[in-house]
Every structure is written in structure tokens, then in C-alpha cells.
Amino acid sequence: MTEKYEFIDGEADNFPVQRMCTWAGVSTSGFYHWRSRPLSATAKRRAELRAVILQVFSDSQ
After folding, report:
1. What is the largest CA-CA distance in the chain?
2. Which side of the chain, N or C, has fewer Cβ within a 10 Å radius?
3. What is the C-alpha separation between 22 and 17, in angstroms, rounded?
4. Mean of the pLDDT values across residues 41-56?
5. CB 34 within 8 A of CB 2
């Protein structure tokens, strides 16, 4: 489910959210509830690791 919400969130500037929710088979209210939730500890850690990995990769170029 999270993957669908992430896709909709990423494309919200290009397409109507309600139409994408219908296409993806998720509720619009569920999407907005997901979007307003704070990041979990795992998601925060993944974001931190991603930043470190991107920095190491950038420095190696």
C-alpha cells in the first residue's frame, strides 16, 4: 500500500489525486491520512542512511 501512496504523492503535481487513488484502488482519505502521518523510526533511519550513501557515492566520483 505504501508504494501506491508514494507514487501518488510523487505525481500529485501532475495528475489529480482523486483520479490516481481510484486508478490505484486506494481511498482518497486513506492517502491523505498516510501523508499526514509522521515518519516512523525505520523511515527516518532509511532516510539518514540514504543521505550518507549518496554523500559517499558523490565523494567517490
Report:
1. 44
2. C
3. 9
4. 95
5. yes
Per-residue pLDDT, 39: 85
Contact (CB, 8 A) for 1 and 21: no
pLDDT of residue 1: 80
* C-alpha cell of residue 26: 486506494
d(CA 8, CA 26) in angstroms, rounded, equals 10
Q: Note the pLDDT of residue 12.
A: 97
Tell me if residue 29 falls in helix, strand or coil.
Answer: helix
Asked if residue 20 lies in contact with residue 11, where contact means CB atoms within 8 angstroms, the answer is yes
Which amino acid is located at 21 in the chain?
Answer: C
